[in-house]
Amino acid sequence: MKKIIFLLILISNATYAKEGYLDSFWMDGTGLEKSAETANLDSIDNFINNVTEAELDALDSVKFPVDKADVKPKWYFAGTQTSLAVGFSGAIGLLTFGGTKSLEVNWERKKPEPKDKSNDDDSLSSSVETVTVNEGTTKADLNKELEPFIRSVVDSKKVTNEDTLRKELREASGKFLAYVKGVSASQTRYKFVPTKIRLEFNVEGSGKLATTLPGLTGKIAVPVKIRLEFIRVMAKAPVVAPTAPTTAPVAAIVTADMTETEKKIATQTKSLLDKLAQEVTLAYSEQVKDGDMEKRDIVLKYIEVGLGFGVEGKIGLATFKANVIPSIFFQKFDLGQAPKMDKSIDEESIPVFVDDESSSDKGLKDHMMNLERKKVRKGMKKSLDFAFKFAEKIQRKTEAKKASNWKFKDMESRYHFSLAGTVGPVKLTGLPHFILHIANTK
Amino acid sequence: MKKLLFLSCLLLTLSGAGRAEDNQDVNFIGLDEMGKEINIPMKKYLWSKKNQEVLKRLGGETLAGLSHLLPSGEKFDFYQFDLGAEIKMKVGIGDLVEATVQPYFYLVFKK
């Protein structure tokens, strides 16, 4: 009898995660095996409910003064953003003090104010000075494009050493164009395609380029910021037959004015993105069944991954940390196909740069490890599951408050690979390897 | 022995019910200057009240100022203004101990 009682108590402790804490399954995958099927976010239900209610109550309580300017369109309050973080043992909370945010939730009005449609922008994120390049942009073109930016920051005295700034920007933009070549040459046959690459950096007063940390919030003084961006033009023609191959013609990488390093970046970026496109598509196809997203009223807008270039000249998945870390955005492409599951690729690997937190006394150290593709896929699936469940809970809670004039707009959910190869929401001192962008479709 | 089993089952049920009870706290989380994790709970209504004060003050004043400082019809017209805010609050975490929390968030203005 005592054994039965002991077993009952054991079961009670194993079944429930502590209130306000994420189950260990989400954190490091060490939960029970059955968690993969039964994993839920019940233990943070109250937290999600309370944060959503507090946010909506606050927004609804404020009546902004009528804008009396006699010019149109008028300014209006469009929304707000809430940052959430996950502690080392899984406690979840509103991010305060310092640390990395794990989730970012944006709120907007249910009925948007009438506005100038030409200025319509669905992003609530901060605007940054952006230089956009296309597939034909050369180094000379890009340097010319950057000249007005250099002039403006030097004239404003925000940067004192013009030569350093020019040299650093030239080197960074050369590498960026190499990444662009890799993106342009990557295949478009799968449902998820790398459609955008973005490289953002801060400029210090000395003219040196400094890291932008998208995972962190808070007190980082950023005098000057610039973004380089390439958006791929995708075919919009309908598929003639359901089985027709949708591989768009892909140009070979032209390496004419590239350095040896840039050539390596271009070819390895293509190779890595081809593998990742297949893995992201497989993970999504296995996790999301037909019609599932419509029922949930949410959609995966894109998956953002960080790319790093190691000292050994290898490209891998990296945290958004070191200088010149470009973000690649995978977006769902209607003409793409779901690849057939081929077990032979499971044992292949994807290079991943991981921080060794155990060596924190000597400063975090990057380790490049070759992670089995099946592990990368499993991590992506778990992350999709977590993000969808989290978004769905906020969505349902917002919907229940019918009288509210505000709603959940979209969110970013950030994930980290550990040295053991498992994936979980990024914790307070970690930095994300990839970010899922989820939007409310209602 | 039957009583013991009954009691255990009752305890098990109650422990589940306890977890499901309505917790009205919002947790604040972050790192202190030494890199140590801090968790401080706050009552939901209190956080909502503080949030309202910030929205009223910052939102109202910014909106009024924007129309005058950044009017429409100029050559390089702004169409979005993001305001990052960080507020400091003293909260009690016991009878004697007080702590400061500094949540930050964005307010977004458009036209």
Descriptive report:
The complex is a heterodimer of chains A (442) and B (111). Chain A is α+β, with helices and mostly antiparallel strands and 442 residues long. Chain A has nine helices and 15 strands. In chain A, a hairpin with a 5-residue loop joins strand 1 (76-86) and strand 2. In chain A, helix 5 (139-155) runs antiparallel to helix 6 (162-185). In chain B, the strands form three sheets. Chain B has a two-stranded antiparallel ribbon with strand order 1-2. In chain B, strands 3-6 form a two-stranded antiparallel ribbon. Chain B has a two-stranded antiparallel ribbon with strand order 4-5. Chain B has one domain. Chain B has two helices and six strands; from the N terminus they run αββαββββ. The radius of gyration of chain B is 23 Å and the shape is elongated. Helices cover 41% and strands 32% of the residues of chain B. At the A-B interface, helix 1, helix 4, strand 1 and strand 2 of A face helix 1, strand 1, strand 2, helix 2 and strand 3 of B. Strand 2 (92-95) of chain A pairs parallel with strand 1 (25-31) of chain B, so a sheet runs across the interface.
